[in-house]
């Protein structure tokens, strides 16, 4: 469990870095949250496919730990609510649907990518 917590902390630090970098460049929409979720799903798909034979405890450290800390569904929903409250309902709906659809496609793309190797 300590390894999961440490990996989760590392994932959260990576998320904060990428999110901050993207938000500084594009403050008009929560592209940072979108980016970490889509990238995280791609990498999670690749990791679970590539490392499926890994020790289950090590795999949990990577999946639940690192990627659990890196990706952030709850922040995406908070961003969507804030957009809706600001009267940007179309942007809010776009964020919810775009995050879900893009993240699913990214996960599938990651598994396909890993199967090549």
UniProtKB/TrEMBL annotation:
Transmembrane stretches, start-end: 31-51, 90-116
GO BP, one annotated term: cellular detoxification of fluoride
* Entry-linked HAMAP family: FluC
**Organism of derivation:** Peptidiphaga gingivicola
Q: Which PANTHER family match?
A: FLUORIDE EXPORT PROTEIN 1-RELATED
Q: State the reactions this protein catalyses.
A: fluoride(in) = fluoride(out)
What Pfam families does this protein's entry cite? CRCB
Name of the protein in its database record: Fluoride-specific ion channel FluC
Keyword Coiled coil annotated: no
The protein's GO terms of the molecular function aspect are: fluoride channel activity; metal ion binding
Keyword Ion transport in annotation: yes
Function, in words: Fluoride-specific ion channel. Important for reducing fluoride concentration in the cell, thus reducing its toxicity.
Subcellular location as annotated: Cell membrane
Q: InterPro entries, alphabetically?
A: FluC
Activity regulation (record text): Na(+) is not transported, but it plays an essential structural role and its presence is essential for fluoride channel function.
What is this entry's stated membrane topology?
Multi-pass membrane protein
Question: Which family is this sequence assigned to?
Answer: Belongs to the fluoride channel Fluc/FEX (TC 1.A.43) family.
């Amino acid at each position: 469990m300590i390894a999961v917590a440490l990996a989760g902390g590392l994932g959260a630090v990576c998320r904060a870095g990428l999110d901050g970098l993207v938000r500084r460049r594009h403050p008009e929409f929560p592209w940072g949250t979108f980016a970490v979720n889509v990238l995280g799903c791609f990498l999670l798909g690749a990791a679970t496919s590539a490392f499926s034979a890994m020790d289950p405890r090590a795999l949990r450290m990577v999946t639940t730990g690192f990627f659990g800390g890196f990706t952030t569904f709850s922040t995406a929903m908070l961003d969507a609510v804030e957009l809706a409250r600001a009267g940007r309902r179309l942007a809010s709906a776009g964020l919810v649907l775009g995050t879900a659809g893009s993240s699913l496609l990214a996960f599938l793309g990651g598994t396909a990518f890993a199967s090549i190797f």
